Structures are given as structure tokens and as C-alpha cells.
Amino acid sequence: MNRILLLLTLFTQIAFSQTDKNFISGIIINKNTKEPVPYVTIYAKNGNEIKTNLSDESGVFNLQNLSNKTYNLTIEAIGYKTINKTIEFNGKNYVDLKKIFLEENVEALDAVVLRAETSTVTQKIDRLVINVGKDLTSVGTDASSVLNNVQSVSVDQQTGELSLRGNSNVRVLIDGKPTNIPTDQLLQQIPSNAIKSIELITNPSAKYNPEGNSGIINIELVKNTRQGINGSVNANTQYGRNFRHTGGVNLNYKTKNVNYYGNYNINGGKKNTFGKLDRVNPDQSTNYQDINGNDDFLNQLFKVGVDIDLAEKTSIGVSTTQSFVDLDYRNNTIISETKNSTPTSNNIFAFTRKPYNQTYNAELHQQFGENKDHELSLEAMYSDRTQPEDSQWSNSLNTNDNSTNYTEDISNKNNLTLINLDYTLPFAEESYIETGLAYREENTDNENFSTQEVNNIDGDPVSRDLSNFTYGRKIYSAYFNYKQQFEKLGVQAGLRAESYHIDGDFHTDVDNQDSSINQKVNSLYPSFFATYELNEDNQIQFSYSRRVDRPSIRQVTPIRSWGTPLTTSRGNPNLKQEFTNSLEVRYNREVGIGNVSATAFYRNTKDNISRTISVDPTMPERAIMSYDNFDDTNSYGFELASYLRIQNWWRLNASTDFYTREIRGFVAGENRSVTNNRFNFRVSNTFTASDKLTFQLSTMYRGASESLQRVRKPMHMVNTGASYKVLKDKGTISLGVSDIFNTFGFRFNSDAPFEQDGEFKWESRRITLGFVYNFGIKSKEKENDRGQQGQEGDGGGDMF
């Protein structure tokens, strides 16, 4: 508690400290393209006093609250030459540098560092953007490792379930587009080095698909757009209890009007998870389960595309993303009555799964007039996914039991079509209208042919044979947004209308059962944002949105997705949509050494979708994990975050949050109600020892969590790492150790429908050794451009 009070005191002191009122402003421009350069870092230093700022999307920066002193101004941007300048106020309270032309570092372009040492955060009107630095990529080799160290986000290492602000109903986008790859598999397929930034959109506007009650997580992948031939190669090796390896290459070739780009990433190896489970069955008998699971996997992901400027204001882009997975899994579960007694069952569950996903995108962008915000965009996407699986269940202590010795042949096919049309119209001064249409169609066909012996409705043993599930849904959408800036007050109001259609059919050979589902729901989704600039350094924002969480394909498919001898997981085709009304208030303050923010939110959810555990009617000793709708829930939360440059050599990113959520539902034959209070914090430090050597140290604590059926105990870990620039700064070697003290594990207990105490541990303590090499070759066209500009006397870094 003392640490919490100390942290709150630090936030308060920083937020309300008083400073002077001088300022420096300017616009950052690319010297060659004459385009604004966003997210450039600007430092103003006088002795131990350091002020920092980032240029916005229009290249504008404003360093506030400066003393009437002389400052050394430094302007830095990846891939550009650094500018240094002495600034004197000379009795004035401001210095307007106007246009500042940055020159690309073309002579040393092969030494461009594409990834910063430290992750940075940018607050936009409707989202938080985390630009991923080496402090995040060093903690692991895939996207789940990176997200697990991002504020407000957590990843369940056992199931791969992703949650935002304690709620798993979150929508994941890749480069702003949906995917039909299940989230748990998607996060394992994306290497950490392929991630450019992560956007947390906790209260999306009407422009966005309203799915995901807790918001949207958009993962932006690396895409180079620099002139000439540019790219990077990377390789990582990681060891926990097994070795894993990651490698990749990122390339682009850009001429005046055409940019070709592509990347390929591969990661593979072995993973191990072990656990134990004590259970009391409904008949009061007990069993102890010793569980050991091993993955042997190979993930491959590549993306190629081209962007073409057909005219000054017209551009098109096409791309494709292909992913291949080869997974062999083996789970050995030994069951006995007590921990040290003779085993009564020795079960092996093994499967081979080979998902293949192909996605194709096409885009058209048309600008009108001189205002670049006056634009029409048309986007189309098609994605097709197949996932064949062959599995085998066996019990070596009872080989004649056909209920525990059987095979399954599973076919899973899914396709997704998405078409978006968006139009933005600026009018008057600081006023905009956004409107658009969208069509989305998703189709799934699942089949499972099983030789398992079960009891039919008459109690006779029969083979399960074929189970088949087809599911289709179509969504028609239209939205309207209005934006207006009234001096210090910015307002955005919007409304989205959607018509949601689903059709599903389920068949099983056991008792020749058939069922179907048909729904048509029309809904409206309003949103509202208001941002007020209290002064140059203080901003407050209020937002509201209505959201929906539609059951995922996995949540509605009544065919097993995974299992152990005494637990199996499958979906519920009768799930309904859940709707959420979300309110949020955010306060943001720029301080001399960085940024601090505080956020409070409230959510009310109707027909909440949550995990359930029930008894398998065909095997009373087996538990079925599925999903169901529960009563309305209320959630409250408070978050604090800071991104500070304490000293020239020390950067600190810290965040803490507290959530409370009321949950009610009918479980195990009774009405239940719980209040889930959860506290989390993360602290990340980056220490710059020299121009080449950097150290990282981070810690994370995830508080206890309670649902209607189980209580998860707290989890915590400490990570460290270092990176060193080599080969004339063209390459970087990194070394990271995650969960140094091996404390990060999943422990829980539950009382419905079984009394259980469980613990699972995966390879959280890992050593990761990585290498990245960046290169570039300037094109002749680029050389000619530079020569002409040189003759014009346009010196690099001049300020006007």
C-alpha cells in the first residue's frame, strides 16, 4: 500500500507542478518531398532542465513552459539528419521557427535504425498509440509477449485469450483490418520484430465496426516507404525449457510513384506447459491430475504489396498476406485418486494441425482539391482459412475403453469478405463530415468425425461419428460523423446503423440430432467525443460509445476446439449478442520531462458473454468449458500512466490501473453474484549507458481476478534486457531475460460445478538473443533529385 501511495503522490506532484510560459514552435518538413514529418522528437535543454515534444500528424510541434533562458534545441527523427540549434528568447516569450526542413540521411541510409530503443506513446483524440521499441521486442519473440507488457492489456498464457481493461471482449485488427485467424493463434504467428505500433482504441467512434465491448487493439506491422531499396533482416533465438527460433526479412523498393514492399517471418521450436489439478467430483470422489503439454510448431507469415500513385491525388494499393502453421501437440495427463496414489488413468491426447490463411486487400484513395482531408477511400478484403486436424486420444491403462481411446478427423473452413467505402468532407473552418458504408460476410463450415463411444438417448453405447456445423453471418453498415473545433473545444459526434443476419445449422449422428439458428438484429451505435484544452499543457476529454460483442466463430461452434481427458472446450451456438454503453473521462498533462495521464471509465453490459464450466452429460466425470450469456454487468475503472525522461540517460514508463466489475448469472443450479476487484501495474525503465549500449528493466503485477466460477490468484514477473549497436550502427544485438525469478504462473480455485485447485506453468522464464541489421541503397532517381536541390541552394537542416 505504501508503494501505491508513493506512486499516486508522484503523479500528483508532477501533474500540478508550476512552470514558466515561454514557448518554441515550428513545423517539421521533409526537405525532398515537402511533406510534413509526424512524430519527430524535439528536445530543448538548459543544464539539467529538459523539455520534450513530438510533432503531430501535420508536423507541428510546440515546446511549452520554458524559462527565459538559452536552450540547445535538438531535432531527431529516424532516417533523417539530426538538427542542433541554439535558441535565445531575447526578451520575447516565444520563438517561431516556422518551417524546419529535415534532410534524409541518404549517405548513411544503410545505417538507419528502424526501431527506437524505447517505446513511445502518443495520445490521439480516440486512441493511444504505442510505438514499439526495443524494450518491448526484447521480452519475447511473438506478439503475445509484446502485448503482455502493454498498459491495460493482458494475455492468458494458458488459453491465449486477450483482454483489455480486464475484459476479453476485445476486437483485434491487423493494419486496421479484421482477420479470421483466431486471436490466440494470431498472436503466436506475428513475430515481435514485425510490429511497428499498437493502437489501443478503448472508446471507438462511429466510423469503426462496433464489435468488441472493451474496445479495439490495432496491430500495425512494419512497412517501409523510403526511397530506393531499403530493408532489414532479423534473427532471434530463445530458450526456456526448450529452444525457439525466429527470423525475418523486411524489404521495400520505392521509385517516384511506386512502392513495392514485402516481409517474411518464420518462427518455430518447442513449447512446454505443465500443471496439476485437484478435483472433487459430484459424487464426492476425488482425483489428482498431473498434466504435461508439449507443442512442436512452425509458423510462417509473409506479406507482399504495392502502392501506386496514379496521379497527384489518386493512389491505389494491393497486397496479400499468407500464413502457414504446422503444429504437433501432445498432452499427457496422469490421473490418480490422490497425488501419490497409483494412477487410475494414463491418457495421451495428440493432434496434428495445419492451418493455412490467405488474405487479399485492394485500396483506392482519391483526394479532391487542395485540402488533403477531402478524400474518398474504397477498400476491399477477402480472406480464406482452412484448418485440418487429425487427433488421437488414448488411455494406456485401459486400452479397451472406446470412450477414452478414439480418433477424430476435423475439418474447419472459414472465409471473410469485407468492403468499406469512406468519404471525408472538410467545410467551413475546422469542420469535417465523415460518412461511409460497409459490408461484411463470414462463412464457416466445421466437421468432426469421431470414433469415440458415447451413450445415446436410450443409454446404449454408440459411436459419435459425424458432427457438422455451418454458420454464416452478414453485416450491413452505414455511419455518419461530424467534427468541429471551437477554439479550445473539439467535438465529434457520430451514429452507426447496422443490420446483423446469421444462419446456422448443426447436425450430429448421435440420435440423428439437428438444430438451427436464425437471427436478424438491427441496431444503432451512437458515439460522442469532446476534448477541451485547459491550456497548452493540460487537456481533458470525455467520450461515450455504444458497443456490441458478437459471438466469435469459436464461441458458437459446438465442436471441440481443445481438451484433456477430464476437460473439453467447445462453443455454444445459442449465444446472443452483448451490448455495452461505455463512458470515459481522460486527463492529460504535458510536463517538462514527459507526459502523465489519468483515465476513469464506466461500462454497463447487457447479456454478458462469459466462460462456463459444466458437467458432460455423456461422461459425468468430464467438465465442459463453453460460453453463455449472463445477466447485466457494471464495470468501473481508473488508470494512471506516465512517460517520463527522468534524466538524459533514464526513461521511465509506468502505468497502474484498478478495475471493479459486478457479475451476475445462473451457475451450477443457483443464482450467483460476485464483484471482481482487480489491481495491476507495470513499470519499464530504459537506461542509456552510451551511444551504443542501452539497458532495460521492467516489472509487471497482475492482481487476483474473480469470475462466477473461479478465482485466479495474482501473477507477477520481472524482465531485463540490453541492446548494443554494432557494424557502424547498422546492426543491433539484443539480449533479454523474461521472468527472471520464474514467478509468472496461473493458479486458481473454483467450486462450481467441481471443487478444484489448479496450477499451470509455461516457459515464462526465457533468455532471448536477437540481432537486427538495417540496410538501404539510394536510387539514381533519388541522387538526381538531391543534385537538383543542391544546385538550388536548399541546404539541409536550414530553418526559415
From TrEMBL:
Signal peptide: none annotated. InterPro entries: Beta-barrel_TonB_sf, CarboxyPept-like_regulatory, OMP_b-brl_3, Plug_dom_sf, TonB-dep_rcpt-like. One of its GO terms (cellular component) is cell outer membrane. Coiled coil: none annotated. It is a multi-pass membrane protein. Keywords: Cell outer membrane, Membrane, Receptor, Transmembrane, Transmembrane beta strand, Transport. Residues 370-773 form the Outer membrane protein beta-barrel domain. Pfam families: CarbopepD_reg_2, OMP_b-brl_3. It is found in: Cell outer membrane. This is Outer membrane receptor proteins, mostly Fe transport. The lineage of its organism: Bacteria, Pseudomonadati, Bacteroidota, Flavobacteriia, Flavobacteriales.
